[in-house]
Amino acid sequence: MLVINYPNNPTGASATPAFFAEVVAFAKKHNLIVIHDAAYTALVFAGQPLSFLATPGAMDVGIELHSTSKTFNMTGWRCGFVAGNELIVKAYGDVKDNTDSGQFLAVQNASAYCFEHPEITEKIAAKYSRRMDLLVPLLQKLGFPAQKPGGSFFLYVQAPKEARHDGGSVHFKSGEEFSQWLIREQSISTVPWDDAGNFVRFSVTFQAASVQDEQRVIQALDQRLSKYQFIF
Predict the structure, then answer these.
(1) What would the CATH number be for the domain defined by 122-231?
(2) pLDDT in tens, 142-162
(3) Residue 84 phi, psi (nearest 5)
(4) pTM of the model
């Protein structure tokens, strides 16, 4: 089995049609089932969402999992759907049937309404993109090698090794240490991700009532961190 996830958690990286074609060829060569975790697929900042199942041959080898959790801000409701190869979907259904039971009807009805109104997701994606356009330049100004991702609401950046201020300094051996410093000393919440190096993940899901309020949040972030010199 090969499990893929694009746009990706935690990096925000997006797939391309050429990459999905390589996945199909790889799966056929090695006799693998492909499961594409497509929870963030609709949250793209440019162009149309890209489905793995749109790839020629993908229906022969894989399935795709979609969720209302990220697409419609229904986190915790755990409602979605699976599509793809008929036999794999049937096997998935057999496992699901013996694992838990369905959501109650209010959740299902709300989900059905959302799937009939894709403009909801378009507005959500536009909001995340707008916030990324505020957050990325700020982190770049502070020295972080930040780049706007192609989708999702995550911003995955390298953690600094040191923060200098007023002749003193704080050293960080990992993303975990930097993340703990941010929350304890600066009241800034991030998620450490040290699996492939020292990284932390920022998010643009912060609470803000308006576009002006979004700018206030970013300005507060700037005020808390701009007094430090970060060494990478």
Answers:
(1) 3.90.1150.10
(2) 999 999 999 999 999 999 999
(3) 140, -145
(4) 0.89
